[in-house]
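user: Here is a favour to ask of a fellow structure person. I have my own habits and do not want them to colour yours. Could you put it straight underneath, so I can go through it closely?

assistant:
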Amino acid sequence: MRLVKRLARRWLARSWGGGEVEAATSRGGTGTAAPGAAPVAAPLTPGSPAPDCRGWAPDGAPIELAMAGRTAILVFLTSTCRECRPVWQGGTAAVAAGARGAPGETVLITPDPSTESRRSVAALAPADLTTVMSSAAWHAYGVTGAPWVVTVAGGVVTGSRPLGAGRPG
């Protein structure tokens, strides 16, 4: 938990205000790629409009998050990613808490239920956070591995990069 808090603080200090964008492919990936993922574009750069997130809740209900005007921290995870475990187990709170002066919600995004177990995601997802199962969101945001964090302020991407053990920063 301390490692995740430290990584979150470092990442947010460096990139919350629109800092560097770092593609996972340039470093050989961060953890687990989205299962069944097609090739994706590079991560969205700061200043890009944040795409809407459409998918399913872990209980199977359809869910859509309009991102226009929204301020949020989007945390891309899988249920089987070893590097994601500390984040599932409370690190999402550390990511959100580290965003001082950056109000907004934390949203967890996993791949579609066709490639990710709804049951596993439901067991891992904190009840107080919105969880969206959407491979389309992974593709739209150019996410190439997990865990990955995208910050959005006022409907605009302000940062996008891997969040994982062993990452410098």
Observations:
- DSSP finds four helices and seven strands in the chain.
